Amino acid sequence: MPAVWELICHHTYTGIPGVIVDLSLHGHSHGEAIDLDDSDFIADGVGVDSGAIRINGARTGIHVATGSSAWNSLPGIKVEAILRREAAHHNVILDCSSFAFQIHLEALKVNFGSIEIDSSIHHTNQPLAVPDDQWIMLGFMHDGFGTLELTLDGEVVARRNIALPAIEPPQGGLRIGNTVSAALLDMSLKGDIDEIKIWRGSPREIYDQFHSRRMSPKAADCWREFELSLQAALRRHPECAGELHEGTRDFLYSLLHQILSHPDGREQLQRASIVYQRLWRTGQINSPEMVDCFANLLDFLRAIGLDISNSEFANSKCLQTVIGELRPLDCDRQFVKLWEALSTLRI
């Protein structure tokens, strides 16, 4: 679950009409007005001089290019939109090839392909009636792990805990206030948008967590040499690079789906993750508590019929070839001792 969010798109619609600047640090998600004229850029939005745009036609909206590196990796995604719609119909807030964020009559919805969260079905308290003709902040969050949420004015109003597919980078750009295709059937927002913010889960989160460990200079050099040997092996076997990238992703998501499909899976996984991260950060790599953490999780996996060692990915030829060319990690004694302990658990 991403613990760090990175802003990749921020529009406020103030300033020169028609000029839509991305205020995020990346600065690569500027907007292009589609069938909007200067009068559709209004000075007052949720506040005086806050700026807003008016979406008032079947083809109007704002196009955001998504070809930059900021959109190439989406471990998770979070969105907030401050808006005011005129009337309840099919109001599209954001749309792209990867997801759609919309209001249908009075229900707030987001879908990622076949996975959907709907405030009329998955509400946390009672079904949400999205109000008309008033400024509100609507949002959603896909944590890249197993949770989808919808929010109204910062409060969670709907939640689903479900194994989630990876978020594919949007192809063909993102449309604000309308569908990407701007179909003949009018699905535009029909209202005003004051601000849009889009975050992604930091792609460096796993890397940063790994390097949060208290590590001796010798162990740090050991891991650096290991990483260089991995990069070299993948260059020598380019046919394996893509296979291992996709294989790792598919293996982890399949494993996650099977774990979360069990009634106790989420609790078991979260408990193991919390313990593991604490011990890793504090340098207790080969402690009895760390070994017990893995042992308990493996016992649970076996109890629900999962055998990691016999997976297709674990036995792939490419994986075995690349592993055979990696630098040994025998200079990191803590890790070696942990691995020796884990080998007795029959991973």
Please give a structural write-up:
The structure is a single chain. The chain is elongated. It folds into two domains: 5-201, Jelly Rolls (Sandwich), CATH 2.60.120.200; 211-343. With 347 residues, it is an alpha+beta fold. Strands 1, 3, 4, 6, 11, 12, 13 and 15 form an eight-stranded antiparallel beta sheet that branches. It has helices at 205-210, 217-236, 238-260, 265-281, 288-303, 317-323, 333-343; strands at residues 5-11, 31-34, 41-42, 52-55, 61-64, 77-85, 90-95, 100-104, 107-112, 115-118, 136-142, 147-152, 155-161, 174-176, 191-201. The two termini are 24 Å apart. The mean pLDDT is 89. The chain is 29% helix and 24% strand.
Compact summary:
With about 350 residues, the chain is an alpha+beta fold.
Q: What is the tally of beta strands?
A: 15
Helix content: 25-40%
In percent terms, what proportion of residues is strand? 15-25%
* SSE sequence, one letter per element: EEEEEEEEEEEEEEEHHHHHHH
Overall pLDDT: 89
* Tally of helical runs: 7
CATH architectural name of the largest domain: Sandwich
